[in-house]
Recover the amino acids of this structure.
């Protein structure tokens, strides 16, 4: 499979009002402990991503935190109902058994919304798409902590390849067109954290702006 055309696109400029295209946050990630915890969660029933038109191959999800109204609902609602701005958010029982993940979340001095594990299987790709309104200018931030990845996974945001590595924590502007290609023989698994972009988080993101 050839890489998406986005790999060959010219780099995009940083957008001042919308924040940087991507940023590596200077926040410690306990990667060995995260990997051990996530390895135990592999036995759970992961959910195929509901946006089937956005990917080829297998892309699945385990929700760890969801809107309060869905805590006792079907897992699909826990994993993918993200849009109601009036809702409070609660941890799910699976997060109780993950002290390292909770420790990482506790290092974020901002309100937390959705927390999910997202796994892109070997040979799969996420087609170029946008998550409209998911950027600093709209008061939202999506963070990624790679749990397992490798150099044959390519994460493209606005034409730039963002070099996310295990043990790092990244923000990217999900309102920009983005795509992922997993050319490796192993799954790529990220911890994905949606946050309210309060002044503390905005400052940390601007400090780590990729390419700045």
């Amino acid at each position: 499979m050839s890489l998406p055309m986005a790999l060959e696109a010219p780099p995009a400029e940083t957008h001042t009002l919308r924040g940087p295209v991507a940023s590596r946050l200077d926040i410690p990630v306990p990667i060995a402990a995260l990997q051990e915890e996530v390895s135990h969660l592999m036995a759970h029933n992961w959910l195929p991503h509901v946006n089937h038109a956005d990917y080829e191959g297998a892309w699945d999800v385990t929700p760890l935190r969801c809107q309060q109204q869905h805590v006792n609902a079907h897992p699909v609602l826990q994993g993918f109902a993200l849009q109601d701005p009036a809702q409070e958010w609660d941890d799910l029982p699976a997060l109780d058994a993950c002290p390292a993940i909770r420790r990482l979340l506790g290092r974020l001095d901002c309100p937390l919304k959705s927390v999910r594990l997202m796994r892109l299987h070997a040979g799969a790709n996420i087609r170029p798409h946008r998550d409209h309104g998911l950027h600093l200018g709209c008061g939202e931030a999506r963070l990624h902590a790679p749990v397992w990845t490798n150099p044959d996974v390519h994460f493209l945001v606005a034409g730039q390849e963002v070099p996310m590595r295990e043990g790092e924590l990244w923000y990217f502007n999900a309102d920009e067109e983005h795509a992922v290609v997993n050319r490796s023989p192993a799954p790529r698994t990220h911890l994905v954290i949606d946050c309210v972009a309060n002044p503390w988080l905005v400052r940390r993101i601007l400090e780590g702006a990729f390419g700045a």
About this structure: The two ends are 33 Å apart (CA to CA). The first strand starts at residue 22 and ends at 25.
